[in-house]
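G., the chain you wanted modeled:
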Amino acid sequence: MSEESVDLSAKVTELESELKKAQEGLNSRKDELEKAQADLTAAKAELDGMKSELTGMKSELEGAKSASAELATVKAELEKAKAAGAEVDSLKAELEKAKAAGAEVDSLKAELESSKSSLSTAQNEMQGLKSEMSEKNKELEDFQTKIAELNAKLSEMKNIGDPNDVKVLQVLADMSPAKDIWSVLKAQRSITMRKLAMQSGMTSAAMREYVNSFEKRGFISVESSGPEDQDPKITVNI
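Predicted structure as tokens:
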């Protein structure tokens, strides 16, 4: 074998060795590439999962936002309901006050009607008293006229002394209220003006004229506490 053949064989062997190494390196690269491809696929799958999870989280976030907005709305409605409830309570209180005021108004109306009735009764009584006083005043005027006539007759009797005139005067005196008043005075001896008027069936105003007449003639004494005294004490002197 020649030296060239040996060198060529050595080169071939070297090349085959390098080729084998290169093949091994290529196979190693393929394995790495396949692993990288598998890792990439796994990473993509994980990324897709994360994207899906992110989408779910976004959806949940939107739901949470919606729920939060709904909760805020519910809270606002609740506050409105509370305010409305307070307003209702206030209206109820006002209604109770109105009812109480209405009851008071009804009571005042009843009192007013009662007062009107009492006033009407008092007016009727006053009218009756006025009528009675008018009658008593008429009686007083008649009596004063008769007194004047009696005084005239007395003057005539002093001048004439006719027994028949005395009889006439006695009849006139019997017809006058003065006889009844004098009977009460003689029986009581001491009495107030009002009691004398009541027992004689006369008003105090009408009675005062008779009392003044008796007092002027000295038949009685009148004790009064002053000009405004409407019920003086009367005492018989004879």
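The chain is about 85% helix and 5% strand.

Shout if anything looks off.
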